[in-house]
Amino acid sequence: MTDTTQANREGTTHVRARMEGNPDPPILSSGPLGWNGLIAERFRHAPAEHHFPPLRENTASLYLGQPVHSVRWSGDGIHEGPTKKGDVTVKASGHPVGWHFDKDVDLLVMRFAPDFLHHVAEENGLDPDAIELLASLDQRDDAVKHIGLAMLAEMEAGGAGGRVYGDALATALATHLLSNHGTSPQTVSNQRGGLPRSALRRVTDFVNDHLSKDLGLSEMSGVANLSQYHFSRQFKRSTGLPPHQYVIQCRVERARELLSSTDLSVGDVASVVGFTHQSHLAYHTRRHFGVPPTSLRR
Known about the structure:
This protein is α+β, with helices and mostly antiparallel strands and about 300 residues long. The chain folds into two domains: about 5-180, Jelly Rolls (Sandwich), CATH 2.60.120; about 190-298, Orthogonal Bundle (Arc Repressor Mutant, subunit A), CATH 1.10.10. It has ten helices and ten strands. A hairpin with a 2-residue loop joins strand 5 (about 70-75) and strand 6. Helix 4 runs antiparallel to helix 8. It is globular and about 65 Å long.
């Protein structure tokens, strides 16, 4: 594990601990899935007034529930008005916050480990000391909405896409926020041409040699010596698939080989190829081959 990855893991632990200060525990969390640098948690709160000390991490929240009337306060003043499904709120670290809603609320809170945004900024050629997030309230941001809903679906599926998928979503969210909600938004360079053949071979060999492991985007991009953001784009140009889909395809193909050539149980095959649960293997074999795992036996 690289020093940066370790730092992000430790930062994620800090974010998890910080979440305990919420008035109600989360009903769903990405914490057990081990995503790099970010914790996403779904909360449902009853109407009440709550005050929090200055946040130590940057957050983006996606409102999921019924329309409500809200009063919220932070370092940039007091805001009162309607909040509706799909609204996105960005909060910068270092500011105390509080809120009151007139009805039950349902929201997804995505909190970044302290150093994760700095790391993503560096990967994208930005000066991490010269850029910070600007707070915004109840904005429409389709990119944050779609990434948040993808995170929620992945959490509900128990991490069926693997840690590499969660890492990719976290990196995509951080990159978008830095480019569109930062003090110095910059367009990330668009490298073309895909991975060099030697780098692509190293990555694909690494994936196939470590299918049983909990593969993350940081490990795959490290093999290619690229930032996670640029690796994801280049890898898709080379293979036609995002990294997480490529890993799933490799796992499903390996599972088919094992099911047709060994007496291993379906559960053992799922474990050998890196699926967390037997149900994840069944879901993906149906999706790729149109049949359950048992139908792949010969």
